[in-house]
Amino acid sequence: MLKTGAAIFFSGTGNTKHIAKLFKKSFEKENINIDLIDIQKNDSINKEYDFFIVGSPIHAEMTPKILLDWINKNIKADSKKCIVYYTLADKNHRENRTYIAKALKNKGFDVVINTSIQMPNNYYHVIFKRETDEEMKQILATKENEVENIAKDFLKENRSDINYKKSTLGPKLVYDSFLIYAKKYAKRNFSIDKEKCINCKICQEQCPTKNIVMKDKEIEFFNKCIGCEKCIHRCPTDAILYKKKPFETYKIEDYI
Fold it and tell me: d(Cα 194, Cα 219) in Å, to the nearest integer?
């Protein structure tokens, strides 16, 4: 009998974290406790769990390297059952979206569910379109039921059809190119509005690669950006400018 699980995730703007919280809520209805493990706040797993839930955003059609590295370092080989989910703006799950499932299978884990969950788009200042506020609310309104159904499928062992033989080389090449482009992305495009900035240093403290230094409302970006969007979207006063202009940010709390 399953009694306790861990929901492990990396989240830039909050989408993947929100789904992890919904999994916690769903499983606790079944008297199964779920611990939330944000990889930016936890550098190891300190308890034994009956199963794992692993959540990832999709960056350029790939799981961020920071999460895969954490999994490889901190999740020991085992045969426990797992749920893997990916959050992104796309409605469809792709057959070759198996990056985490493959990493876990290689450690001996039994991946029961491997799925994608549509969330509001948060990468719209470059090439994609920002949904309207109403569209965002509509997308998010369906997530609790969707996650609850995934949890039920897991408990009933209604398995995903996972094609481990499907090559992930194409997405990996795209992602590697994206990372090269992203390294200097913040440095090239982001600056600070000193009138809006309250010097809270959230951008500096929450950057997953320590790419930001903030001092007396002066912001400096280095060359380690991974394009997670956390700094620009999580700023409480929207003080980070994109190409020296104000940017309409996405804060998930405004839509749930």
Answer: 10
- pTM (two decimals): 0.95
pLDDT per residue, tens digit, the chain (256 aa), is 899 999 999 999 999 999 999 999 999 999 999 999 999 999 999 999 999 999 999 998 899 999 999 999 999 999 999 999 999 998 889 888 999 999 999 999 999 999 999 999 998 877 778 999 999 999 999 999 999 999 999 999 999 999 999 888 888 899 999 999 999 999 999 999 999 999 999 999 999 999 999 999 999 999 999 999 999 999 999 999 999 999 899 999 999 9
3-state percent breakdown (helix, strand, coil) of the chain, nearest 5? 35, 20, 45
User: If you count them, how many residues does the chain have?
Assistant: 256
Burial 204-232 (b: 16+ CB within 10 A, else e): bebbbeebbebeeeebebeebbbbbbbbb
Q: Which helix (H) or strand (E) holds 232?
A: helix 230-234
Residue pointed to by tokens 């090449």 = 173
Maximum distance among all Cα pairs of the chain, rounded to whole angstroms: 56
Token code pair at residue 177: 């190119």
Query: What is the C-alpha radius of gyration for the chain, rounded to an integer number of angstroms?
Result: 18
Helix (H) or strand (E) segment spanning residue 173: helix 169-182
N-to-C CA span, the chain = 33
C-beta separation of 41 from 72 below 8 A: no
Q: Which residues of 141-167 are buried (b: 16+ CB within 10 A; e: fewer)?
A: eebeebbbebbebbbeeeebebeeeee
